[in-house]
Amino acid sequence: MAKVLLVIGDAAEVLDTMYPLFRLREEGYQVLVAAPEKRTYHLVQHDTHPDWDITVESPGYTLAADIAFRDIKPAEYAGMVISGGRAPEYLRYDADLMRIVRTFFENNVPVASVCHGIEIVAAAGVIRGKTVTTVRKCRFDAEVCGATFVDREVVVSGNLVTARTWHDNPAFMREFMKQLKK
Fold it and tell me: Dihedral through CA 57, CA 117, CA 64, CA 59, nearest 10?
């Protein structure tokens, strides 16, 4: 059974995380939840509110990490999904995660990034020259790191599959599955 990493941290978005987790398992992949430490993390849910200019965040489920970033051997994995939410804001400073992301790109292994997950691949320096999509408020992160932003539900650029938000999950996972099966 091929293994896929699912990158999370505290404040990872519930639907950005759980949909890929179960979709990959449904296809027969062994999904290892990866995080800074092997412990339980707190997910959040994001929704819109008519009186707010930004999304409203509320507590969601908890999810235990199977493996810490420092213990990951990238060669053992067929792909990686990077969840969104606020977690990428601090995960992008993790040296072990940056090593893993760069190794996946050096070896052309499929990587999926949704919403704020773009902050991780941008910080890893692997999106220069790629076309990506993300939540609009992360457009700057993509462009300042050399990517071309487009506002579409899903974009495939080489080994990278990107989506804007959890609303795009069906198209996002369809395209990522195609990459995994190549």
Answer: 0
Whether 47 shows a pLDDT value over 90: the answer reads: no
Q: Give CA separation, 176 vs 10, 11, 24, 107, in Å.
A: 24, 23, 10, 16
Active site residue 49: no
Select from 2.130.10.10, 3.40.50.880, 3.40.190.120, 3.40.30.10 the CATH code of 3-180.
Answer: 3.40.50.880
Q: Where are the domains of the chain?
A: 3-180
Query: How far apart are the C-alpha atoms of 84 and 117, rounded to whole Å?
Result: 5
pLDDT in tens, 111-132: 999 999 999 999 999 999 999 9
Out of 42, 46, 49, 116, the active site residue is 116
